[in-house]
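Field: sequence (string)
Field: structure_tokens (string)

Example rows 1 and 2, in order.
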Amino acid sequence: MLIGDVARRSGVSARMLRHYDSLGLVRPTGRTDAGYREYSSEDIRRIFHIESLRSLGLSLREVRRALDDPGFTPAELVDDLIRQTRDRIAHETELLTRLRRIGAAEPGGWEDVLQVVALLRALGSKSAGQRQRAALSSVAEVPVPVEALVEAVLNEADPNVAGALQWALAQLGDGALDLLAEGLGSPEAEVRKRAVQAIAEISGGQATELLQDALAGSDVVVRRYAALALGVRGVADAIPTLIDMVVQEANDVDAADTLSALASRPALADQIATSLVERLARGTIESSARRRLTQALADIPGITTSRALADLAHDEDRGVALTAAYILGTRDL
């Protein structure tokens, strides 16, 4: 079969077939009387083998080795191709994400495109200072897609940069909440924590609903952050978790302050005092935890608290008794 016929039947151009010949990949078995290349059935079969291997991403050098080296084993090469393909997909996915984010910013001209690109790069910088400046300028100067800000805040380990990013997201209102809600469902504990911290900075009913969902979740760290944020918003459902935090000495000062803020609402003061007293009455609580619970009563107004402190002033635990007596003295002033 002549080269033109092979090209038509195989889909490989005559030029490429000549290239294969020059490389020694496929040398036609014979020549016609006129000197034209003549391919045998075996030659054509080899051409199809070459094209199949090239379709997997092999170079012509690798194809030749695969076909001609008797000791060649494909497993290692296939593993390498898988790695290269994954790297290429990751690179292309990153590029696609960047392009979508630039498009979402609705640039009016190339100057706007360049500004958005520069800001996106700054958000991914190794320098915490650059990331922080990018977070602050993302609202004041260049509009950055909310998706980019959410990704940045969910991956940010530096507390100062995280604070700036959370502030930037808060300026967008409810726009970031759906993406942050996905963060709450992440398999990574740090991502879940960063998500609830960011949600806590956003006001409004939808954010409060997400925090209430987080309060009912299984991640104890997320529940604690949700309780602190909900307590500030006056949500009584946070009270049990806040008291747990006092007992467990987990950010207990903030938890006690939040209980105090909740107790400024007359309808909640007695509920909080009663819950604290009930926890104090449990015999399984350590002495140090009972003292913290007693201290938490200090800023809870109402007769229920005063009566509880009067009883605690005679507690068998001297530390609890002295703490209660001191608080009673300050309440009488």
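Row 2 begins here:
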Amino acid sequence: MLSEKELINIAIDYIKTFEKEIGRELIIPKELMIKKNYGIYFIYHSKIYYETKDWKYKLIGNAPFLVENKMGKIIEFGTSRSLDHYIQEYEASRYP
């Protein structure tokens, strides 16, 4: 089982792959992480949006994702529903 620090590092490496495409530095605010016994859910934003809260810097399509603590598998969710919905679907084994 992976540690919390390892899960966070996996998440950071994952969002770094989007930075080049987006052209902005991305961050994962710790206060938005949702820790479960099977992993951590992450939400990310552009750093400038998070610091300024200026909507012109808000990302579109930045889907939340889960990093499972068993093997570090990343599961990306959608943006059309709330994160709570996706958590419920995952916990009911209805999400791939």
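free_text_note (row 2): The two ends are 20 Å apart (CA to CA).
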